[in-house]
Design a protein that fits this description.
- The complex is a heterodimer.
- Chain A is built from eight helices and no strands.
- Chain A is an all-alpha fold.
- Chain B is an alpha/beta fold.
- Chain B has a domain of 74 residues.
- Helices cover 42% and strands 25% of the residues of chain B.
- Chain B contains eleven helices and ten strands.
- In chain B, the strands form two sheets. A six-stranded mixed sheet of chain B has the order 6-7-8-3-9-10, with helices on both faces.
- In chain B, strand 4 and strand 5 form a beta hairpin.
- The two termini of chain B are 32 Å apart.
- The chains are: A mainly alpha, B alpha/beta.
């Protein structure tokens, strides 16, 4: 196949898949409204996503926070500005690193699980069985997972932010020899509306991204076990890339509208 | 009553069913036979509304299900029980939860009432109550198929039962048990049954009337005598390995 032809085919496929994903996402959002509400399934998913990802997020937060604090404290020392460490940590963690690292970690852990579970249910005709029993599989399977993600990704992001900033504080007092008061005063100084808003807006967007992509890939998985495996890999890759792209877009949009609040 | 009128269906560019027509009166059992990939299972998916035909009409009890609203389709599905190929049991749920699934989702019955119904159903399909808390993976293939039949029956007290390859992969004695259960349902509950299979010997045990599908087209619709006399080369070729089974059925009928 010629490169131009290949590109045309790729764009056609991309447009077709994007259109299907968009329609599926609309159906997922619509399924959030109206009875029945699968409350126990939603709480179960919140537990699986939230508690299940906690260790990973804590580990990511502490290592990212400490690593960043160590590097910044060395650089800032050259300018005699070590006291600004808390300020830089708060901005970098709350605005960028916390949401993105949590989003990517949850995408890796949760998106794969959701796609694999729904995909194997489809492969073994369990989704057809649900429809035969008058149950909407999107409402039963996708909606609880989406709600759980919308609740738990922001919570996990806050946990990651706190752990990362605490990790930075440990570096500040034990290695950089900055007082706790100086560090925390600088951190609290940057907890303004703009930083907190962008820090919470991003995980909400990422939750939708992970939910839409992982469920879509599960519901459209084809080709038996091999197909489910492929869908799972694609789910993680696409969700992670989309999170990075969405991160830039959210940052740009929020800066455009809330410039005066930072 | 189930009726297909000139139904055509394709997966993408690949035609699966072409201009298919047949009619099954209420309370009758009909076996749909054909080789793998001939479009048999697609017929069941179309009856359940899991797929929509490209052309033609599908009538269930005088309601044309093509183009009806999802709510109407859901109501029609409540009269249909489906036993999927390999059972399609919910593998993360226990046997009890599987059988009582419909009642758990759609009824306001208490848990103990549902439990009672599930136990009754386990008895009806010839299974012990001891397996109620087991997961489907812990059961044999035949037991899984019985649980699937129990789940379909307890769901809606169906007027129509659809079976997709109910005996495939089972040993002869287990297959015989499943066939007698299907016969019992057809005879005593007077349900209209469609059994899709490529196991010819099993087909003769369940029904006296058959439809043979080849490449998405109906090449035969009639009883055992007509089937034996059919001179269509495709039917002759399809039945060649099963000549003894057909002869035995004929012999038994004369006796």
């Amino acid at each position: 196949m010629k490169p131009v032809q290949f590109l045309i085919e790729w764009f056609k496929h991309f447009a077709y898949e994007s259109q299907r994903l968009f329609i599926f996402s609309g159906r997922m959002v619509a399924s959030l409204y109206g009875r029945p509400f699968y409350v126990s399934e939603t709480f179960e998913q919140m537990y699986l996503i939230g508690v299940g990802s906690l260790f990973l997020v804590v580990l990511t937060g502490i290592s990212a926070g400490q690593g960043m604090a160590l590097q910044f404290s060395n650089e800032l020392a050259d300018f005699g500005s070590k006291n600004y460490l808390g300020r830089i940590m708060a901005i970098a963690i709350i605005r960028e690193l916390g949401p993105v690292l949590t989003g990517v970690m949850v995408a890796a852990r949760v998106a794969s699980g959701i796609t694999a579970e729904i995909g194997s249910m489809k492969s073994s005709k369990q989704l057809d069985a649900m429809v035969a029993f008058g149950i909407d599989p999107i409402k039963k399977l996708a909606a609880p997972r989406l709600i759980a993600l919308i609740v738990m990704v922001p919570v996990l992001t806050i946990v990651c932010d706190v752990i990362a900033i605490v990790g930075g504080w440990m570096i500040a007092i034990f290695i950089s020899h900055i007082t706790s008061l100086t560090y925390w005063t600088a951190v609290i100084d940057r907890l303004n509306f703009g930083n907190l808003f962008i820090g919470i807006a991003k995980p909400f967007v990422f939750a939708f991204v992970i939910g839409f992509i992982s469920c879509y890939k599960g519901f459209t998985a084809e080709g038996g076990t091999k197909g489910v495996g492929r869908a799972t890999t694609e789910s993680v890759v696409i969700a992670s890339i989309t999170i990075l792209i969405a991160n830039f877009i959210v940052t740009k949009v929020v800066y455009s509208f809330l410039r005066g609040y930072f | 009553m189930i009726e297909f009128r000139n139904v055509s269906f394709s997966y993408g560019d690949k035609p699966v069913l072409e201009n298919l027509s047949f009619r099954i009166p209420t309370g009758e059992a009909r076996v749909i036979m054909g080789q793998s990939g001939s479009g048999k299972s697609t017929i069941l998916r179309l009856i359940l509304g899991l797929a929509k035909p490209d052309e033609g009409d599908i009538l269930i009890e005088d309601t044309n299900i093509c183009g009806v609203r999802p709510r109407v389709l859901r109501e029609i599905r409540k009269r249909i029980g489906m036993v999927f190929q390999d059972g399609a049991l919910f593998d993360s749920m226990t046997v009890g939860e599987n059988i009582g699934y419909y009642l758990l989702e759609h009824s306001k019955m208490r848990f103990d009432e549902i439990g009672e119904k599930v136990r009754e159903m386990l008895g009806f399909v010839g299974l012990s109550e001891d397996i109620i808390d087991k997961l489907p993976d812990e059961l044999s293939g035949g037991m899984q198929r019985r649980v699937a039949i129990g789940r379909a029956l307890l769901s809606t007290d169906p007027k129509i039962m659809l079976y997709d390859e109910p005996t495939t992969g089972l040993d002869p004695s287990m297959a015989s048990n499943i066939l007698s259960l299907i016969n019992r349902l057809t005879e005593f509950k007077k349900v209209t049954s469609i059994i899709v299979t490529h196991q010819i010997a099993d087909a003769f045990e369940i029904s006296k009337k058959f439809i043979v599908i080849d490449s998405g087209k109906s090449i035969f619709d009639g009883d055992i005598t007509q089937l034996r006399q059919a001179d269509d080369s495709r039917i002759v070729e399809f039945l060649k390995p099963f000549r003894d089974s057909i002869a035995n059925v004929q012999k038994n009928e004369f006796i």
